[in-house]
Structures are given as structure tokens and as C-alpha cells.
């Protein structure tokens, strides 16, 4: 290299050198040429990826369009070349290393892996204290994470100064790995290779761009909001020829004072400026009044469309649905409704690709889009922390695993590893992996999760687990969302946050929910799985429009069938009468034929019989020509009633100065009395102490101080939030019989069947039932034994819409004492109550 490019004359006409890329031969025989270098005065021009077609390489004809030429200034080029061909063990090689300073170890580890993949060594530490000067001299750059304070940054730079190292400083603006790689690569870059994108300056609604060769320049702006979600806006996308260009930018996207730096070889560009309506930031500071910092990067926000054609699914020999066609386009929010067991969760699993359909096909456009399936109950895995749970539910954990494998393959030099790494990195970035940890902290704080992210998920309360599940949803950045009952266990604040999230999504969404108010506020279409009729109906418009259209359609179907049945019945009656008359006429003709010599009379009777037969045949043809209208099958309907017990005493339950302390949470002191026939609605945020209040009143939770008592003759019927009675390994039949020991198993089976729990359910382990089936079993128990104090903690969770309406009707007819905890806004409006208790931070107040 030294002799060819620095000391010898060019061997080819035109002052050209040729670098061969063919592994088979070392001359021009095959015509493979990696690059052609030619002198132009003192400068050098590099024409990349030429393909020689003749005895003499002619880059003007053979060079690929859009690749090169690149001009390098002679003096700079010779200096850089000298550094490149220096002893590999010398300072130039050693200093292609970077020291990473920061607290986000996971982000820094991913950054280090990405840097090593492109030949840059990286080490991670909290600070430079105690690092020997000899080691510090081996680094060419030091990079600081956003969380590193200015005092620690100054201390690190002082350490390098004392070691006599002129190290490049990189201040990371955001935990986005490609942007950090670009910054670090630029800081370490010492050669004259400016890349295709050489400079950019923005201001006044335009940008001055300089490119060294024809290339496509695409710039996308994003803004991080308070929840660390990314909002994307395209700024510029176009083909530019070599030279300087002034391109227009969206004025709203570039308000503020931008700063820019190019990534080597045009690999990445990034910049920062104040958010919309924000003042320009002072140097090194944050924008005043800005809604968030902006970065720009190469790339675009993906929008995806999910198409299902002729899908079919079932359980064993029982068909759930068939011939299902569905298109989930960007911006769609499709509410999936139907009774429990209609196949809603099964359909979501099919759309997510987790279960193969019995027939039909799924098509995702583009195929690389990310589909997120969030099932009903957040699975709490033993040993899994909240942080790991969030990474798994957002898809980042799996994307990280794939990227780690691709990185290792890249290091090992496996074929196709570079493409696999690029694809895995793009997916990891698209799912929000680069800044997940930072966003997770902020979202958890905003939701009031009140636990450390390194705490095990299994240690969380029900309310905390619900908040963690909501956090995983708010942190998700899928291209298609499939949400299975995300409203379960959410308080009113959580429901409002979820509504804002769903309505603000650009991605297509399919959601299963039994919260009627949530459906009314969010969905744009409704897909109904009508199990009773065996039909699939897609309704345009929102949930209220669906209810109206469904009722009209059902009424018309019933009217059409009744009209058909009446007409068919009338024709059948006419045909029966005509056949009767015909048979009677034939019998009379035969009886009189033996002694009647009147030919005219015989002929008349014969013709009359034939006319009746013709009329009967005509009527039968009319019946056959009727367009058959199938009778609408009656839906299975939960007929629920609550078995009443003799009334209790006047005082049902009391608390006097009651306190319960659990870790850092204190409930009380509370003094409260519940009287006979009180109908009490208990409301409050998750974690406020509602379930603790119920447990204290029932004597199920021991008090740390104070007194609790149940009144005389109180018979409690409870549906607790966890449905604990039906969570064991015993069969549903055994668990139910244990709760009602005086009831015969045959009667138990009959009662459970009324609640839709048939023979295939009663012998199944109770823990193996679906959440909706466990809820129906709990409600069946209320009908199986008499109660006079009914305690319901989130009873609508996992219940389908018809069952919720039946429960509301049963509660309306119930005459005993009622304690109801629910976040179902329509149930709170529908149920008659006499008192309302508000629980907040362990304190109970009665609302007027």
C-alpha cells in the first residue's frame, strides 16, 4: 500500500491505480475491480465499485451510478494514509477505543456491542477515578450518558488531562444507540473520508446540504414527549447530486436552534433543537418551555396493515368461527365482541401468529412489521423483575436476544450476518429498546407504581400488577396492537390513560373489552363473533352505532323469519286442506263407481278430483319456491338471581379506629358502620386500600390496631377480585361442592350448567378455567347458597357484556346489603346505591 499509493507512479493510463477485489485471480482477467484511484494534481479521486469490461478500466463507463467519485485533498490524504499503514501496534491503532461513562449499564452494553461490531473497542465505567494514565492514553474518545452530572464529566476530563491525552468528548443527547455510534465514530474519525453527506446547516425553514456523491438524503424528526414516547415527522426525503444544495424544511418541525454533526460515510445524521413553541436552548442547556428535545435520524415510521382471509378455528370438534375476513389498517380501532367462549382470545392469537388457523391465511404488510399481542392476564413468571416484565411485554427482550445473536454472528464472520444485524437492530429500535429503561422509569412514576423496577413481579399486589400491565402497554411501540381485555383491574385514572393511548395510536388496533364506556369512547369499528347464529358481523361506526345496528338487524331477522314462517304455515295448511279434499273426492268416486251408470257424473267427479290434485301440487310448488329464512337461534342467556337469606341484624359490619399496616402502606384509622340494606359503592384508585377495606370489614384481614366485627345473622356471599375460591388444583365440581356441602353433585352440575359451565368444565381443574369461567362459577355460588351481605370486588372483570347486564338486573332485584367495588362506569350509573365511599391513600371518606 505504501509503495503503490505514495512512492510509485500509477501503473495504468490516466494516472490510475486499481485495487482488485476478486479472490480468485490477481490480475485483470476476470474484470472484478473494487476501486479505481486516480491522481488529479495533488489530489486523489476514489471511484468506488467499478466493473471493468475491457482491457483498460474506464470508471466513467463502468462505475455504478451513484457510487463515487470521492475527492481527497492531497496533503490530508497522505497524512491519513501514513496513519493507516503505520505499525498495527502503534498509537493510531490503540486509540480507536472509547471509554463509556454512565449509569444505564444495559444501554451502554448495547452501545459497546454495536461499536465492537464496526471495529471500535469500548469499555464501560462509572468514572475515571483510579484508572492508570497508561490506560487512559489508549482511548481516543470518552462518551457520557445523559444521566452523568457535569461535576463527574469535569472530573473525567481532568483525569485525561493529567494523563496528557487530548481525548475527544462525546455528550450523548439521547439513549439511541445508532445516534451514539455516529457521534463516537465521528469523534474518533481522523482521516479525510467525510462521507457522502459532508455538511448540513438548518435555519429559517431551509437546510444547506453538501454531498460528495449522488445519493438519497432522508431526514426524519422525532420528539420525545413526557412519557418518552416518540412522535415522528418527516422533514426531507430526496435525491441529491454531488455539490451544495438548499432544501426546504417543514417550518413547524425545525423551530429552535439546531446543531448537527455528520456520521462518517453518511451512516447517520442527528441533530437537536427546541420543541414546538419552545424557545431556543442556550448552549449545553435544555430548551425553555419546549415540549421535548428533538433528534433527527435516518429512517421512517412504519405503518402496517394486517389482512386475514377466510380464517377458521375451533376446539376439538366444536367450530368457533369460519370464513372470517378482516383488514386491520393503520388508525383502525376494532372492538372485538361476543359472549365468553365465542373465540375472541383465539382470534387474537391467530392474528398474532401464535396459533396456526385451521384454514385461511394471514398477510402482514410490510412483512417485517411488529405485531404486539397483550393477553388477558399479565403472566407473572417466578424470578422475573418488573423491568424484565416490561421488556418482555413490549417485545424488547426478544428483539434484544435476536440482536445479541446477530452481533455474535457478525463478530464470527457468519455469512449474511451484516443483513441480520441490520434487521435486528432496526426491529429493536422500532420497538423502543434504545430508551426503554429511561421511559420505563418515567411511566412507572407517572402511574404511581410505587415499587422499584428490580422488584419481583410476584411480590406485587393486584393493583400494582394492573399498573405494571398498563405501563407495558403505554411503553409498547408495535405496528399492530392486539389487546385482550386491557381494561381489567384498571382504576378510573388508568382507564382514562388507556383511552388516550388507544385513541392516539397511528397503528391498527384490535381490542377485546367488556367495559362498555371504554368501547364507546375508543373503537371505530366492531367485529361481532355471534356464537349463537354462527355468524361474523363487521359493523362500521363506533360502539353505540353497533348496538343500534345489531338490535335493528336482530329485529329484522326475527320479523323476516316470522313472515316466512307465517306464509309457509298458511301454504302448508292450504296444501293439507287441498289434499284432504282430493282424498275425499277420490274415495267418493270409487264408492259410487260400482253402481253409477251416469257417465257424465263419473266424469265430473273425476275432473273435480284432478283439479284438487293440481291445486295441491301448485301449492306444494309455492312452498318449495319460498326463499328459506333460517330461524334466528336463541342465544344462551345467563338467567341470574341471587339467593336471599333471612335478614341479618340491623348492624351488619363495623370498624372502630381500625388500622392495617403492610410495609410502607397504612390503611386507616377508619371508623365505619354498615347497616342492613345499605347499598354501598366503594371507589378509589388502585392501591388506595379498597380491597383492604373489604377484608377488614369481613374479618379476613387481621387489624394491627382497632376493632372489627360482623353483625348477628350475617351470611356473606363474596366475589373477590382474584376469584381465589376457584384457583386450586381440584376440579371445579369438587371446589364448588366444598363451598355448598349440603347440595348434591347432580344439583351442582345443573346450577353450573345454567351459568354456561357444562360437563367439559366441571371436571376440569379449577385453575385451568379461563378468567371468565371462574367469574361465572363465583356468581353461580351466589345463587347456590343464600346470602344477606353481598360483597363484589370488580365483578365485571372477564364477564361478557350479556352477563354484565344480567348481573346488573340481579343486583337491582337483590334486597340485602351490598358492598360493590367497581371501576365500570356504566355499572356505577346503572346500580341503585344508597351510599358512596371514596378510598384514597388508606383513608375512607363518605360522599354526600
Question: How does this structure look, described?
Answer:
The chain is α/β, with parallel strands linked by helices. Helix content is 35%, strand content 25%. The chain is built from 25 helices and 34 strands. It has a six-stranded mixed beta sheet with strand order 21-22-23-19-24-25, sandwiched between helices. The chain has a six-stranded mixed beta sheet with strand order 30-31-32-28-33-34, with helices on both faces. A five-stranded antiparallel beta sheet has the order 12-11-16-15-14, covered by helices on one side. A hairpin with a 2-residue loop joins β9 and β10. α5 (105-117) runs parallel beside α11 and α10 (386-393) crosses α14. The model is unreliable at 63-67, 87-94, 191-195, 222-232 and 254-302 (pLDDT under 50).
User: How many angstroms does the end-to-end distance come to?
Assistant: 89 Å
The number of distinct β-strands equals 34
Q: Which ranges are low-confidence, i.e. pLDDT below 50, for 5 or more consecutive residues? A: 63-67, 87-94, 191-195, 222-232, 254-302
Put simply, the count of helices is 25
Question: Which strand order spans the largest sheet, edge to edge or round the barrel?
Answer: 21-22-23-19-24-25
Helix residue percentage? 25-40%
The Cα radius of gyration reads: 38 Å
Q: β content, as a range?
A: 25-35%
Largest sheet: 6 strands, mixed
Overall pLDDT level: 75
State the shape: flat
Amino acid at each position: 500500500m505504501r509503495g503503490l499509493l505514495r512512492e510509485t507512479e500509477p501503473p495504468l493510463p490516466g494516472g490510475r491505480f486499481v485495487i482488485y477485489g476478486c479472490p480468485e485471480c490477481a490480475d485483470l482477467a476476470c474484470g472484478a475491480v473494487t476501486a479505481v484511484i486516480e491522481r488529479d494534481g495533488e489530489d486523489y479521486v476514489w471511484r468506488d465499485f467499478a466493473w471493468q469490461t475491457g482491457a483498460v478500466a474506464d470508471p466513467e463507463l463502468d462505475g455504478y451510478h451513484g457510487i463515487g467519485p470521492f475527492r481527497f485533498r492531497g496533503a490530508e490524504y497522505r497524512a491519513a494514509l501514513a496513519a493507516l499503514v503505520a505499525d498495527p501496534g502503534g498509537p493510531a491503532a490503540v486509540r480507536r477505543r472509547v471509554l463509556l461513562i454512565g449509569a444505564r449499564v444495559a444501554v451502554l452494553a448495547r452501545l459497546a456491542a454495536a461499536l465492537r461490531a464496526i471495529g471500535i473497542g469500548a469499555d464501560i465505567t462509572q468514572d475515571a477515578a483510579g484508572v492508570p494514565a497508561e490506560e487512559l492514553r489508549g482511548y481516543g474518545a470518552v462518551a457520557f450518558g445523559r444521566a452523568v452530572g457535569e461535576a463527574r464529566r469535569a472530573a473525567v476530563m481532568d483525569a485525561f488531562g493529567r494523563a496528557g491525552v487530548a481525548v475527544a468528548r462525546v455528550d450523548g443527547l439521547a439513549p439511541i444507540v445508532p445516534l451514539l455510534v455516529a457521534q463516537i465514530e465521528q469523534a474518533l474519525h481522523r482521516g479525510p473520508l467525510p462521507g457522502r453527506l459532508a455538511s448540513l446547516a438548518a435555519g429559517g425553514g431551509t437546510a444547506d446540504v453538501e454531498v460528495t456523491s449522488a445519493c438519497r438524503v432522508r431526514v426524519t424528526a422525532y420528539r420525545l414527549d413526557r412519557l418518552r414516547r416518540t412522535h415522528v415527522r418527516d422533514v426531507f426525503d430526496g435525491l441529491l447530486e454531488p455539490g451544495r444544495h438548499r432544501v426546504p424544511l417543514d417550518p413547524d418541525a425545525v423551530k429552535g436552534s439546531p446543531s448537527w454533526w455528520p456520521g462518517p460515510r453518511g451512516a447517520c445524521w442527528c441533530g437537536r433543537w427546541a420543541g414546538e413553541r419552545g424557545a431556543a436552548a442556550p448552549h449545553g442547556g435544555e430548551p425553555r418551555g419546549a415540549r421535548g428535545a428533538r433528534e433527527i435520524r435516518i429512517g421512517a415510521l412504519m405503518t402496517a396493515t394486517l389482512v386475514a382471509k377466510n380464517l377458521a378455528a375451533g376446539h376439538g370438534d366444536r367450530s368457533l368461527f369460519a370464513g372470517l375476513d378482516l383488514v386491520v389498517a393503520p388508525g383502525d380501532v376494532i372492538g372485538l365482541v361476543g359472549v365468553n367462549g365465542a373465540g375472541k382470545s383465539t382470534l387474537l392469537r391467530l392474528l398474532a401468529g401464535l396459533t396456526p388457523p385451521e384454514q385461511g391465511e394471514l398477510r402482514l404488510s410490510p412483512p417485517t412489521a411488529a405485531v404486539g399481542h397483550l393477553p388477558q392476564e399479565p403472566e407473572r413468571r417466578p424470578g422475573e423483575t418488573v423491568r424484565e416484565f416490561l421488556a418482555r411485554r413490549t417485545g424488547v427482550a426478544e428483539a434484544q436476544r435476536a440482536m445479541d445473536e446477530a452481533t455474535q454472528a457478525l463478530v464470527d464472520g457468519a455469512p449474511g450476518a451484516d443483513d441480520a444485524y441490520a434487521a435486528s437492530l432496526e426491529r429493536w429500535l422500532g420497538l423502543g429498546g434504545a430508551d426503554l429503561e429511561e421511559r420505563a422509569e418515567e411511566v412507572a412514576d407517572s402511574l404511581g407504581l410505587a415499587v422499584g423496577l428490580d422488584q419481583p413481579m410476584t411480590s406485587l399486589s393486584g393493583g400494582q400488577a394492573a399498573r405494571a400491565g398498563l405501563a407495558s402497554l403505554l411503553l409498547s411501540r408495535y405496528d399492530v396492537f392486539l389487546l385482550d381485555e386491557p381494561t381489567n383491574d384498571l382504576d378510573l385514572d388508568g382507564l382514562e390513560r388507556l383511552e388516550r393511548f388507544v385513541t392516539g395510536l397511528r397503528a391498527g388496533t384490535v381490542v377485546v373489552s367488556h367495559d362498555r364506556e371504554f368501547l364507546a369512547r375508543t373503537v371505530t369499528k366492531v367485529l361481532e363473533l355471534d356464537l349463537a347464529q354462527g355468524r361474523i358481523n363487521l359493523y362500521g361506526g363506533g360502539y353505540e352505532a353497533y348496538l343500534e345496528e345489531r338490535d335493528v338487524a336482530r329485529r329484522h331477522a326475527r320479523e323476516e323469519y316470522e313472515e316466512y314462517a307465517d306464509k309457509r304455515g298458511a301454504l302448508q295448511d292450504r296444501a293439507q286442506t287441498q289434499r284432504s279434499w282430493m282424498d275425499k273426492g277420490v274415495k267418493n268416486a270409487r264408492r259410487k263407481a260400482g253402481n253409477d251408470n251416469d257417465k257424465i257424473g263419473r266424469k265430473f267427479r273425476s275432473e273435480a278430483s284432478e283439479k284438487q290434485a293440481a291445486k295441491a301440487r301448485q301449492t306444494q310448488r309455492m312452498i318449495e319456491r319460498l326463499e328459506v329464512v333460517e330461524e334466528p337461534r336463541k342465544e344462551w342467556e345467563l338467567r341470574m338471581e341471587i339467593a336471599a337469606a333471612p335478614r341479618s341484624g340491623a348492624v351488619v359490619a363495623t370498624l372502630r379506629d381500625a388500622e392495617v399496616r403492610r410495609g410502607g402502606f397504612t390503611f386507616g384509622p377508619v371508623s365505619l358502620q354498615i347497616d342492613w340494606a345499605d347499598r354501598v359503592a366503594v371507589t378509589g384508585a388502585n392501591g388506595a386500600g379498597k380491597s383492604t377495606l373489604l377484608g377488614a370489614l369481613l374479618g379476613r384481614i387481621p387489624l394491627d390496631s382497632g376493632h372489627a366485627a360482623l353483625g348477628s345473622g350475617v351470611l356473606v356471599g363474596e366475589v373477590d377480585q382474584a376469584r381465589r375460591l376457584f384457583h386450586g388444583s381440584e376440579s371445579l365440581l369438587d371446589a364448588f361442592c366444598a363451598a355448598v356441602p349440603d347440595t348434591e353433585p347432580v344439583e351442582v352440575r345443573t346450577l353450573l350448567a345454567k351459568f354456561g359451565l357444562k360437563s367439559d368444565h366441571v371436571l376440569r381443574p379449577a385453575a385451568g378455567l379461563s378468567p371468565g369461567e371462574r367469574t361465572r362459577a363465583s356468581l353461580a355460588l351466589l345463587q347456590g347458597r343464600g346470602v344477606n351481605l353481598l360483597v363484589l370486588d370488580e365483578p365485571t372483570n372477564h364477564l361478557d357484556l350479556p352477563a354484565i347486564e344480567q348481573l346488573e338486573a340481579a343486583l337491582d332485584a337483590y334486597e340485602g346489603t351490598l358492598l360493590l367495588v367497581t371501576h365500570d362506569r356504566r355499572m356505577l350509573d346503572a346500580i341503585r346505591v344508597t351510599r358512596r365511599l371514596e378510598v384514597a391513600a388508606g383513608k375512607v371518606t363518605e360522599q354526600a
